[in-house]
Amino acid sequence: MTTTPAVTLNKIGDCSTARASIRDLFTAPDFYFRTHIPDLLSADEVDALVPAEALLCSQAQHPIGLVWLELLPAGYPSHYFLHARFSHRASGATAAAAVEQAVRTLAAKRPMYRISHEVCEVDDRGLALAEAIGFELEGSVPDLVALGGERYALRYYAKLRREMCYV
Fold first, then answer.
1. What is the CATH number of the domain that holds 141?
2. Tens digits of per-residue pLDDT, 113-135?
3. How many separate domains does the chain show?
């Protein structure tokens, strides 16, 4: 029986080695981390998309994804927005476990009541991840994303974490 190597989550910070690994992830045309055109971005544009607070997810010392739980600045001190994307090397179960680990770690340190997430309807892996981690579809905006000459809906998901609410 083979075991799957554990996923490690490391804060990116300003580490140039991490930044180089991250840029490699964005060469895949469907690495939709905060963009719908990852493979068309310059290195500087990729660096601007990935904040120092984001987590680089690695498995067996190979980068497999990014997770960033962004605190929404609109006056909701326990509402976060999930940005998450994983390469094809990560299984759906591995990606879901990494996101849950990131959420548990942050929730142990800060109040967390609601997590929002958005996914383009053409992104099958993103949709599967949202469902695997228990997000509920709240609605969609048709024709919001243009890809390859076609227009697609953007789906909005959310998850309430009542047990983690400290406010």
1. 3.40.630.30
2. 899 999 999 999 999 999 999 99
3. 1
